[in-house]
Amino acid sequence: MEKVRIGIIGIGNIGSSHVVRCNALPNTDLTAVCDVDPDAFKRIEESVRKRLQLYTDVEKFLSEAPIDAVIVAVPHYDHPDLAIAAMEHGKHVMVEKPIAVHKAEAERLLAAAKKYPKLIKGAMFNQRTSGAHQKIKQMIDGGELGKLKRINWIITDWFRSQHYYDSGDWRASWRGEGGGVLLNQCPHQLDLMQWFFGMPVKVRATAKLGKLHDIEVEDEVNAYLEYENGLTGNFIASTGEIPGTNRLEIMAERGRLVYEDGKLQFIRSERECSEYSKNTDKSFDLPDLWKCDISFSEPEFQQHYEVIRRFAEAILHGTPLVANMEEGIRALELGNAMLLSGLKEKTVELPIDAKEYSDMLTELVKTSRYHKKPVVKSVVDASEFAKSY
Questions:
Q1: Are 95 and 219 in the same domain?
Q2: What is the pLDDT of residues 132-159, one digit of tens each?
Q3: Of 373, 370, 375, which is closest to residue 37 (Cα–Cα)?
Q4: How far apart (Å, rounded) are the C-alpha atoms in residues 288 and 337?
Q5: What are phi and psi of 266, to 5 degrees?
Q6: In this model, does residue 375 exceed pLDDT 60?
Q7: Which CATH number goes with the domain that contains 276?
Q8: Within a domain: residue 372?
Q9: pLDDT for 373 beyond 70
Q10: What is the mean pLDDT of the chain?
Q11: pLDDT score of 308
């Protein structure tokens, strides 16, 4: 097999963009797509659509379509069930972020995944492929920064208008989406937080529901994190600021590393902070500092392309994924912890109580203004779009 035959479930904004990516990559062959709404197929360029097999019934798609692997790109609540169904049909699976809405559902998905050790299971954490993020990870793991002391990530350039939230009746609702900025926009940064720094042991947060928009979920979060090794962190997120900020600041024994506006800068101290503080005979002077602009290179295939390419390579040749599906529970739990802390106004210890969070979400869903409409399943006659494949 030279190419992996890919099928995509969910042809919305992200699913339709994956159609383009799978067509562009050298090791994938997009053969089929599935969406409960046949109008969704109109998002696919006609020349591409004509050669695809089109389904509106998931069971038929998984049992009949000529596919080796599935990309799940549907609303969040459906991620676990569709990923499990794909594995039950012997398909490799890539799940869009987040892998589930809450920790208990992620645990259910991962327990099911263990039954299929020969299948490749990935998570769509494309931000790990960024050249800057790769360099930050390398500098942390390689000890260049020394012991980490404090981190601060302000990620408020996720601006979304009211029109965005009104564009889909499932958006920004407890019943339809299960959360707001933490579940929709920030899973990538939450994944990078745990990828760079590991998981905290305590979280204290504020989470404001519909503060900046007419929505029922959180659109502003401020979180304080404590780690077992003494590291502390702050994580600030919003979808209602113009202009927004995306600034990651890492304070360490050897200085300060900042990533902002596409630039990575390290102000490096000649001596470690704690050692200098204990031994200097100066009261205010600092050791010599060097301002270093850190260069980094981007991979040949960027972001989502690279995740899908490496997913295919893992299937074809057993090479590593960008992120295993199992890793997806960490970013999810971190976001769950922030929301649990914010809504219950208390400090939350990790690992969190999955049932406590699930029970809280269940109560929020009961009052959700969104009500899912029943879907009438049908099979699309592909001849409507093409005479042959």
A1: no
A2: 999 999 999 999 999 999 999 999 999 9
A3: 375
A4: 40
A5: -120, 115
A6: no
A7: 3.30.360.10
A8: no
A9: no
A10: 93
A11: 98
Half-sphere exposure of 68 (CA within 13 A, CB side): 18
Range of the domain at 31: 4-127+302-324+378-384
182 and 251 inside one domain: yes
> Model confidence at 56, in pLDDT bands (50, 70, 90)?
very high
Give the whole-number percent of the chain exceeding pLDDT 70.
95
DSSP string, 9-55: E--SHHHHHHHHHHHH-TTEEEEEEE-SSGGGGGGS-HHHHTTSEEE
Residues 115 and 224 in one domain: no
Q: How confident is the model over 300-343, as pLDDT tens digits?
A: 778 999 999 999 999 999 999 999 999 999 999 999 999 999 99
DSSP state of 155: E
CA 327 to chain centre: 11
- How many domains would you assign to the chain? 2
317: domain CATH number is 3.40.50.720
Q: Are residues 87 and 140 in the same domain?
A: no
The whole model's pTM is what? 0.91
Q: By the 8 A CB rule, do 122 and 93 touch?
A: yes
Same domain, 182 and 196: yes
254 and 140 in a common domain: yes
Place of tokens 């029970």: 359
Residues 112 and 176 in one domain: no
What's the first-to-final CA gap in the chain, in angstroms? 20
